[in-house]
Amino acid sequence: MIGYLFVGLFYIAILIFVVGVLVRIFNWARAPVPLNICTPLGQQKSLDWLPRARFDSPYTKWETFVRMLGEVFLFRSLWKNTKYYIETQRQTATKWLWLFAIAFHWSLLIILLRHIRFFTSPIPDWILLLQSLDGILEVGRPELHMVTILVTNLTILLGLFGLLGRRIVGAKERAISLPSDWLALILIIATVGSGIIMRYFWAVDIEGVKRFAIGIVTFNPVLPPLDLFFLTHLTLVSALLIYFPFSKLVHAAGILFSPTRNLPNNPRAVRYINPWNPPYTGISWEEYYEMYKDQLDEIAERGYKVGGGG
Amino acid sequence: MFEKALKGGKLYWSWIAFLCLLILVGLASYSVQWQVGLGITGMSKEVSWGLYIANFTFLVGVAASAVVVALPTYIYNQHKFEKMTTLGEFLAVAAVTMCILFVLVDLGRPMRVLHVILYPSPNSVMFFDFIVLSGYALWNIIIAWYILSSRITNTDISWYVKVIIYLAIPWAISIHTVTAYLYSGLVARGMWMTALLAPRFLASAFAAGPSLLIIAAIIAKRYANFDVGREAIDKVAQIVTFAMIVNLFFLGCELFVVFYSQHPEHLAHWTYLLFGMDGYGKLVPWIWASIGLGIFAVLMMIHPTTRKNEQLLVFACALIFISIWIDKGLGLIVPGYIPSMVHTVVEYWPTMLETFIALGVWGVGLLIFTVLGKMAIGVFQDYPTEEELKEMMEEEKEEEVVEEVVTAPAKEYTCELCGAVFTDLDECCEHAEKEHKIAKASCDIVCFEKG
After folding, report:
1. What is the pLDDT of residues A288-301, one digit of tens each?
2. What residue spans define the domains of chain A?
3. Which residue of A4, A143, B129, B176 is surrounded by the most CB atoms within 10 Å?
């Protein structure tokens, strides 16, 4: 009976996630970007002899695309993070945020891809390949029982606890941390933790889990195995899915719609006009001449050239 | 900071490309080893440590030698060696990385590497080697990073970094000592079972590592316009000289004990190495070359005229580096197994794939050293300290003074407006102010140098 609750919860969570993210994306896509507010990280295209930062300050669409790739896959902005020393007015690179962020996000991506194996049958080959590459380490007694250690499980913990540690140890980070920042981190840590416990310490009915997962994607729901850690994991994932569209986690989609990143830095070459500016009505030279006739004539008398067109 | 490594000329990038090629070849070869196993190497039941462990032993020495340059900087507060020290620390990082990679490629089942930490055996020297090596890598990364950071921010190094610096010095000695204990504790291997092994390792390390450092420093001076200072190079060259002499002396002690005592267990290995045995003697030309090169290089290093000549110094350092590489690698690890414990001679020679894998690991190490070194050079050049700035200013001033002394009599100035000739710019300016009412500050619009 309680199984139905979890099936319902999971479907509702997926529904909220999909609809919520679509609504957010729709709102971003609809939101006007009246002016070019690209925030470049380098010298923009200028005179030919000035060396410019091609991808940090993109000029063409192609360069902007490359910049977005760097942003999404390499976290270029975080890499540029610096610490400022007031006494000596110098700044130096601090890469901790970048290190922990990239460790966490890449691990998460690989872990999510590995989860496809629960939702497909047969499992695609590339998922198995990914799984075997990820599980390159193994521990245990060879003659008894070998356990595959997934590298991403280690790196995601490193990333998450690093990110959490930054907020705890760093005074400035602690000061600017909001409850939502803590919530997101702790929710993800709990989700990952319950998954890791299931993988290494708490044997779950893996067939039951797979039946449940396939039932979910084929809209032919099967009751989940009533296992403490599996249900905890499921609940936490549902909570994350529900929380996702309303929180800062939605930056996963938001980065693509961020006008500071997805616009080329070309406002010196291309004119951007705010569409809802009041219509501009200029005046012709004749009207202007009529307005300042006396003064203009006086100037013309002194031998200066006065005239329209030019 | 890292961005500095991404700016370089054609030479820099072609060097990087070459190293990447080496790494790719190594990776391709390693994929064969991954599938087939250690069978693709030349190692056998009799000789179970080959090129990989030989290189590992040698590189532990290179890594340990960073301490040689760290010592004077921080204990005697000699900041002239700071640049050399940073280079040395990055060299240590690269060398330790290579060490770890060489051990990894030597593992038949590298996927079980976590067992070292999960099931530690404190009575195994390997376990301690793992700890000291990874610790040493960490300390050096931290130290070098914070030295560069403090250079950029113009602040003092934090106290905890200083603690790590002091910790790293005995640590460096320990990594090579522990590595020597790996061998010298083995009862059944006569060649290695000598108390002299650890001191010999240290002596050769303090010759090989700084030699590489000198070569790197002179390359940086030639091609990157980065001068670590004549004094620093000279000091390190002296250290190399002493260490190499001590190293050769230790070798002599070893040879005396072996050949005078005629202890059969020890004698057999050395006889095989130096003269060959039962018609087998693959290593004989190598070890004699090593000894010959070593002695020749020491003679070059002892004499100040050759030591102070940059090109000859690089040449001598390269000889020492090669000599010790042969001595530590082919001449120490491999003959320890030959003849085998049942007194048969089974020779070892690395296979093609094995060599490629080793070259790939060297590629990784050199790439790390190049990139980190380039970064350090960039930081040092962009953020000179106040003392260095003063020195640079003084140098410029001196140059100016020299110019004036030489050229002043030949200079003549003319006033463009009236054609009057003066020997001094000031006179011309005064004239311009008086006669033409042109402010002294802007007299350069009328006073020009003649000719």
Report:
1. 889 999 998 898 88
2. 2-284, 285-310
3. B176
Q: Give the nearest partner residue to B154 out of A88, A93, A137, using CB atoms.
A: A88
Which of the listed ranges A145-159, B104-118, B380-394 does the model predict with the highest average pLDDT? A145-159
Q: Which pairing describes strands B421-422 and A145-149: parallel, antiparallel, or unpaired?
A: unpaired
CATH of B409-449, one of 3.10.450, 3.30.160, 1.10.8, 2.60.40: 3.30.160
pLDDT (tens digit per residue) in A176-207: 999 999 999 999 999 999 999 999 888 899 99
| Pairwise CB contact (< 8 Å): B115 & A139 | yes
Amino acid B71: pLDDT: 67
Spans of all domains in chain B: 8-394, 409-449
Q: Which residue of A has its CA nearest to B152?
A: A92
Q: For residue B356, is pLDDT > 90?
A: yes
* Separation of alpha carbons A103 and A165, rounded Å: 14
Contact assignment for A93 to B153 by CB distance below 8 Å: no
Contact criterion met (CB below 8 Å) for B338 and B49: no
Per CB distance under 8 Å, which residues of A are interface residues toward B?
A: 85, 87-88, 90-93, 95, 136-139, 149
Q: pLDDT, tens digit, for every residue of A222-266?
A: 888 888 999 999 999 999 999 999 999 999 999 999 999 889 998
φ and ψ at residue B211, rounded to 5 degrees: -60, -45
Q: What is the least distance, in Å, from the CA of A175 to any CA of chain B?
A: 24
Name the residue of chain B whose CA is nearest to A139's CA: B112
CATH 1.10.3720.10 assigned to domain A2-284? The reply is no
* Tokens representing residue A216 in the block: 């979910």
Residue of A nearest to B154 (CA): A88
Cα distance between residue B282 and residue B330, in whole Å: 10
- CB neighbours of residue B321 within 10 Å: 23
Q: What whole-number distance in Å separates Cα of residue A9 and Cα of residue A239?
A: 9
Q: Cβ atoms within 10 A of the Cβ of B168, count?
A: 22
Q: Name the token pair of A98.
A: 């970048």
Q: How far apart are CA B330 and CA B55, in angstroms?
A: 9
For chain B, percent of residues with pLDDT exceeding 90? 25
Interface probe for A, chosen from B34, B107, B109, B114 (most Cβ of A below 10 Å), is B114
Q: What are phi and psi of A145, to 5 degrees?
A: -160, 115
Q: How far apart are CA B211 and CA B205, in angstroms?
A: 10
Look at A139 and B155 and tell me if their CB atoms are within 8 Å: no
pLDDT on residue A137 = 85
Cβ contacts of A92 on chain B, cutoff 8 Å:
1, 149, 152-153
CA distances to A112, A160, A163, B183 from A107, rounded to whole Å, are: 9, 10, 14, 40
Whether the CB of B1 is below 8 Å from some CB of chain A: the reply is yes
Determine contact: B112 vs chain A, CB below 8 A.
yes
Q: Which residues of B touch A129 (CB under 8 A)?
A: none
Look at the alpha carbons of A165, A168, A171, A172 in this order and tell me if their dihedral is positive or negative. Answer: positive
Structure tokens, A213: 């997962």
Note whether B109 and B276 are within 8 A (CB): no
Q: Using an 8 Å Cβ cutoff, are A136 and B111 in contact?
A: yes
In this complex, how many residue pairs, one in chain A and one in chain B, have their CB atoms less than 8 Å apart? 35
Which of A88, A139, A149 shows the shortest C-beta gap to B153? A88
Q: How far is CA B122 from CA B116, B127, B188, B393, in A?
A: 10, 7, 21, 57
Q: Which class for B36: exposed (0-12), middle (13-18), buried (19 or more C-beta within 10 A)? A: exposed
**Alpha helix (H) residue ranges in B310-351:** 310-325
| Chain A residues with CB-CB distance to B112 below 8 A | 137-139
* Per-residue CA distances from A242 to A9, A232, B202, B291 (Å): 10, 15, 62, 73
What class does CATH assign to B8-394? mainly alpha
